[in-house]
């Protein structure tokens, strides 16, 4: 991947690991803002870093590596939607506030329907599994306005929490039933923006899953080096070596696919193929690697104390979000069929 900020990626990773701390521990949200992560892609004229999705992807991987509970995914998706819009006073004000961390935001990628009523409109629809919608100050909604894609900064939406086994994530059900919408809160998107935003969401989750998989491999190799059986470390056994090698191969392939998808998203070009390849492979690999990590840890791997269950549950949720692997493979098949 090419980026004007490539030379700081190692430092960015190191800072992220320090801030995020131990696995599964919630990091102070203000530290995300202070580190500049929320405004990574916000133009420097609006108080952001003026970086790209490549740098955002670095943080997304580290959030996954730490299985950190946070609102970061929802913020990344909302910022992505706002930077798709043409600059205007209200959009710039909101983008600056989200980037600074003074306003929390979420994005509904499932399309709602906007029906015009003179200069204003009525919004209807329902979306499940919306990241970080619960408690968000602003919820942005992708909607269809008589064949035109728009982004609606809606107030008065019904948002309820969706129960989850993965306690590191927050998903909400967002609905609107003929909700009155002010014309000033409706922004037009170009024809391909909705596809770009959905691909961005899929790649963001793939980055998180890549971090999960790499954390599980590192934990397993470390455990295999110290756990003794029959008078020697279990890492010396051929079966354990081969299993760790298989995990490494899967994650190495996932790394190549995710990096390619991140680069295309950052460049603003068609990322549909790369996103589907990365999402389907990386998210499935993370589940497999986390499951194998539990097996190689033996009995302790299945206990609450080991903490491995946190990663497995997060990986399983990632696999389902923004398209299961089978859906993305069908998308690829239709593309080349």
From TrEMBL:
Cited Pfam families: Acyl-CoA_dh_1, Acyl-CoA_dh_N
Gene3D superfamilies named in the record: Acyl-CoA dehydrogenase/oxidase, N-terminal domain (1.10.540.10), Butyryl-CoA Dehydrogenase, subunit A, domain 2 (2.40.110.10), Butyryl-CoA Dehydrogenase, subunit A, domain 3 (1.20.140.10)
Entry-linked InterPro entries: Acyl-CoA_Oxase/DH_mid-dom_sf, AcylCo_DH-like_C, AcylCo_DH/oxidase_C, AcylCoA_DH/ox_N, AcylCoA_DH/ox_N_sf, AcylCoA_DH/oxidase_NM_dom_sf
Swiss-Prot/TrEMBL cofactor(s): FAD
Keywords tagged on the record: FAD, Flavoprotein, Oxidoreductase
Domain Acyl-CoA dehydrogenase/oxidase N-terminal: 28-100
Organism: Mycobacterium yunnanensis
Keyword Disulfide bond part of the UniProt annotation: no
One Gene Ontology MF term: acyl-CoA dehydrogenase activity
Signal peptide interval: none
Tagged with keyword Mitochondrion: no
Designated name of the protein: Acyl-CoA/acyl-ACP dehydrogenase
Coiled coil: none
Domain Acyl-CoA dehydrogenase/oxidase C-terminal, residue spans: 201-336
């Amino acid at each position: 991947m090419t980026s004007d900020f490539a030379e700081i990626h190692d430092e960015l990773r190191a800072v992220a690991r320090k801030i995020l701390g131990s696995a599964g521990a919630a990091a102070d949200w203000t530290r995300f803002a202070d580190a500049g992560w929320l405004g990574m892609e916000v133009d420097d004229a609006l108080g952001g870093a003026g970086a790209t999705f490549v740098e955002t992807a670095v943080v997304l991987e580290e959030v996954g590596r730490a299985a950190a509970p946070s609102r970061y995914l929802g913020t990344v998706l909302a910022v992505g939607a706002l930077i798709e819009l043409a600059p205007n006073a209200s959009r710039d004000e909101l983008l600056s506030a989200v980037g600074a961390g003074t306003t929390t935001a979420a994005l509904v990628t499932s399309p709602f329907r906007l029906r015009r009523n003179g200069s204003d409109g009525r919004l209807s629809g329902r979306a499940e599994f919306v990241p970080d919608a619960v408690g968000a100050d602003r919820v942005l909604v992708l909607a269809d306005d008589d064949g035109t894609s728009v982004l609606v900064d809606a107030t008065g939406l019904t948002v309820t929490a969706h129960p989850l086994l993965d306690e590191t994530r927050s998903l909400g059900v967002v609905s609107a039933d003929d909700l009155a919408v002010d014309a000033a809160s409706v922004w037009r998107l170009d024809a391909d923006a909705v596809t770009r935003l959905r691909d961005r969401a899929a790649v963001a989750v793939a980055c998180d899953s890549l971090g999960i998989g790499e954390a599980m491999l590192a934990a397993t190799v470390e455990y295999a080096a110290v756990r003794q059986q029959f008078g020697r470390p279990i890492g010396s056994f051929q079966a354990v070596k081969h299993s760790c090698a298989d995990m490494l191969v899967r994650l190495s392939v996932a790394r190549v696919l995710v990096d390619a998808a991140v680069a295309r998203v950052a460049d603003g070009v068609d990322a549909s193929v790369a996103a589907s390849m990365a999402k389907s492979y990386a998210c499935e690999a993370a589940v497999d690697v986390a499951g194998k990590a539990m097996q190689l840890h033996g009995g302790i791997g299945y206990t609450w104390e080991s903490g491995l269950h946190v990663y497995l549950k997060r990986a399983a949720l990632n696999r389902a979000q923004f398209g299961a692997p089978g859906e993305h493979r069908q998308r690829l098949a239709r593309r080349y069929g």
